């Protein structure tokens, strides 16, 4: 979802209307990580109250794997199938072990998107997982042309969320607003789930996106599946 604003011009020339309306993501639910993000958001808000509208609710925290344009119900069903088919590939990459995703430090894109960084080592495995999911979507001929290279980042502030700020000349977010946390440890999330989420459907009561489908992966994921 974070990537939909900056799709390449080429895509828009060929298919002007087909902006992504779905995304495949890994939900982040670890309390320590979410509490720490809230601390940073509070600090930013205290220093710059105008940025309130640009802050993303912690209930929506996720890592985006790919974005997709699914124009029909049939395509949504294909995407659900693609995600389910990716489970075997993802399990093969994990080798029955848990993937601990460690979050440390804050990064930014063009001083307009602020995110929590993920450790380089964990990124490698996750990149392979993203490739496996992407492959399954490509095999179903689904439109994931809006997706960029996978760079796992946990966005918690986005200027584009508050267009009025831009009109008032707010074009950059100064790193002074969050420097106290710039090199902080945020926590570790055990990778256990991948979701296919709708960007435009009403969010769930929990505040998280509407999910068309979720798959459980890894050891923790297997336990959750049994419980359900």
TrEMBL record:
Cited Pfam families: AKAP7_NLS
Record's signal peptide: none
SUPFAM superfamilies in the record: LigT-like
Annotated ranges, domain A-kinase anchor protein 7-like phosphoesterase: 20-216
Superkingdom of source: Eukaryota
An individual GO BP term: regulation of protein kinase A signaling
Any one Gene Ontology molecular-function term assigned to this protein's record: protein kinase A regulatory subunit binding
Protein name: A-kinase anchor protein 7 isoform gamma
């Amino acid at each position: 979802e974070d990537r939909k604003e900056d799709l390449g011009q080429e895509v828009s020339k060929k298919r002007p209307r087909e902006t992504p309306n779905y995304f495949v993501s890994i939900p982040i639910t670890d309390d320590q990580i979410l509490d720490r993000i809230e601390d940073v958001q509070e600090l930013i808000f205290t220093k710059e109250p105008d940025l309130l509208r640009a802050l993303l609710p912690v209930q929506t925290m996720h890592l985006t794997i790919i974005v997709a344009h699914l124009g029909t119900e049939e395509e949504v069903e294909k995407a659900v199938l693609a995600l389910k088919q990716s489970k075997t590939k993802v399990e093969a990459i994990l080798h029955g072990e848990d993937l601990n995703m460690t979050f440390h430090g804050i990064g930014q894109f063009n001083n307009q998107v602020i995110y929590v960084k993920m450790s380089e080592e964990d990124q490698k495995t996750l990149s392979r997982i993203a490739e496996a999911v992407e492959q399954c979507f490509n095999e179903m001929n689904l439109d994931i042309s809006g997706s960029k290279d996978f760079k796992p980042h946990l966005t918690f502030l986005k200027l584009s969320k508050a267009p009025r700020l831009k009109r008032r000349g707010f074009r950059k977010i100064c790193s002074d607003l969050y420097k106290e946390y710039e090199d902080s440890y945020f926590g570790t999330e055990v990778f256990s789930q991948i979701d296919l989420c709708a960007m435009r459907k009403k969010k769930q009561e929990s505040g998280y996106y509407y999910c068309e489908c979720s798959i459980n992966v890894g050891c923790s994921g297997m336990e959750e599946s049994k419980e359900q």
